[in-house]
């Protein structure tokens, strides 16, 4: 009888804790990919300024890329981040740049040719990355 009571208590606690744990993981993943995307947009902007050559960032079909930049782990491939794979398991909800395209180009001064928003989600957690047209700075909103 005591064993059945202990098993019942454990089952009740697991039923309470499991959804909170899953939500916590979704929050962490959404924050991580949003921060990485902001960092990578700043990287593209800085590369344009330091090289004096326009640099492009493209987001499409569950991924984003820094066009023309090699992957830091494999220089034979381009820099592409898959949002739908580990560790993020995120969804690219929308890309809404003012130019109607999925690419933003930073000129040699680090100024983007368009502003707009990239929306990603992990479960019920949604993050919006905004690119300011005037400054070129990306922020999480």
Explain the overall architecture.
This protein is an alpha+beta fold. The chain has one domain: minor pseudopilin epsh fold (3-Layer(bab) Sandwich). The chain is 35% helix and 33% strand. It is built from one helix and eight strands, in the order H-E-E-E-E-E-E-E-E. The strands form two sheets. It has a four-stranded antiparallel β-sheet with strand order 3-2-1-5, covered by helices on one side. A four-stranded antiparallel β-sheet has the order 4-6-7-8, with helices on one face. Strand 7 and strand 8 form a beta hairpin. The protein is elongated and about 75 Å long.
SSE order: HEEEEEEEE
Rg, Å, rounded:
20 Å
Low-confidence stretches: none
CATH topology: minor pseudopilin epsh fold
Strand element count: 8
Cα distance, first to last residue?
53 Å
Major sheet attributes: 4 strands, antiparallel
The CATH class: Alpha Beta
Query: pLDDT average, as an integer?
Result: 93
Number of domains: 1
The proportion of residues in beta strands is: 25-35%
Shape: elongated
What is the tally of helical segments? 1
User: Considering DSSP H and I runs of 4 or more, what fraction of the residues is helical?
Assistant: 25-40%
List the helices and strands and how they pair.
Layout: H1 2-51, E1 55-60, E2 63-70, E3 78-82, E4 91-97, E5 103-106, E6 116-122, E7 125-131, E8 138-140
Antiparallel strand pairs: 1-2, 1-5, 2-3, 4-6, 6-7, 7-8
